[in-house]
Amino acid sequence: MTEGLSSDGRFSALAAPEFRRLWWGGVFVFLAMQTQQVARSWLAYELTGTNTALGGVLIGFGVAGLVAIPAGGVLADRFDKRSILFFCQTINTITAIVVGIAIETGVIAYWMIVAASVIGGSTISILAPARIAMTAELISADRLTNAIMLGSMSTQATRVIGPAIAGTMIGVAVFGIEGVYYLSALLSAVAVLLTLRLPTSRPSRRIDHGPFDDLKAGFAYTRSRPDLVRPLILSLLVVMFGFAHQAFLPTVVDEFFGRGAQGLGLITTTAASGAVVTSILLANTRREDLNGRQSVAAYAFGGFLILFAVAPNFFLALTAMFFVGCAMAAFQTLNSSLILSTADMEYHGRVQSLIMLSYSAFGLAALPFGIVADQVGLQETMVGMGLAVVLAAGHNHLWGLRSGRGAATRSIDGL
Q1: At residue 24, does pLDDT exceed 90?
Q2: Which residue segment(s) compose the domain that 175 sits in?
């Protein structure tokens, strides 16, 4: 392990003790989220049995994110990040306990699931920018890309473990769905304890104006940087059209292949296994190798999503889903690392919040996709989602070519 934590190793950022505590806290936070996500989707499917309702759970997440994400970026750049993490993780712990009790006592209703989704969307929207901004404080600049990669890797790893645990627990009567929520609460509580051992942080710069001025400055800074605008728009399109497929996995597993909660856990775990493998392989990608590769990953993501949608049996669906997970992780890791390693550190919180807006978009898109799926068919809808991702990747590729030619022309004119 010593070699892996060396200054030039694949896990070099973990050699810093304070970042290591932040990293482990993230593992528990996202593991809690992933177990709860599977339980929430399955519970919504049991209560309603419609794709529209599954999309409705995610739209609560998306609407909350639209409001909370810009605020999260500003807060991360203005206030103590440890306090932000502590507050959000404590709220997550309480919410999971309340939902678990509601299920156990038989008073659970669909609106409660949506409300929990809204709370979860709000807390992660505030928590994520604070985490990435704190990473930049705890790690030297030469290790920042590696730290971002390792953060992505831990997130993907929880997507392997979380769904597998949740799917198994749901299928065992002694645990059930309420047991998944109680486990999620315990994991969030562990994250709270780890957060208390982090150092207090400082604002990214001297604060001499209001938060709305900060927000406007963040948007103005981003607009002035074409090298940030292009990957941010690609993130928005790919996540909005492609990531929404996750909302409909309970329907795919149950109606297409006749599998239960364990099947849902297996298919999500398979996707996450591919994501973990990819994240590990990409952990020490050099900064200069990031640009352009995210488009390739987006093409692959859209293509494998189409293959998953048309898979004739469960085995082929699992195979396609493995590669969907690989491509999703590659895109997330490469695109986020490119954006954050390009942005100036004082804007990291606000730029991270713009990345997070993509995830609100996929939450908002899930409900319309669910309505379309109920009307024209889920398989056809998912094929369309995959095609949209491929077109977004093509648009980004052509945009990059035009930008390159424009830069070359300006360089020649300047001679």
Answers
A1: yes
A2: 16-202+221-407
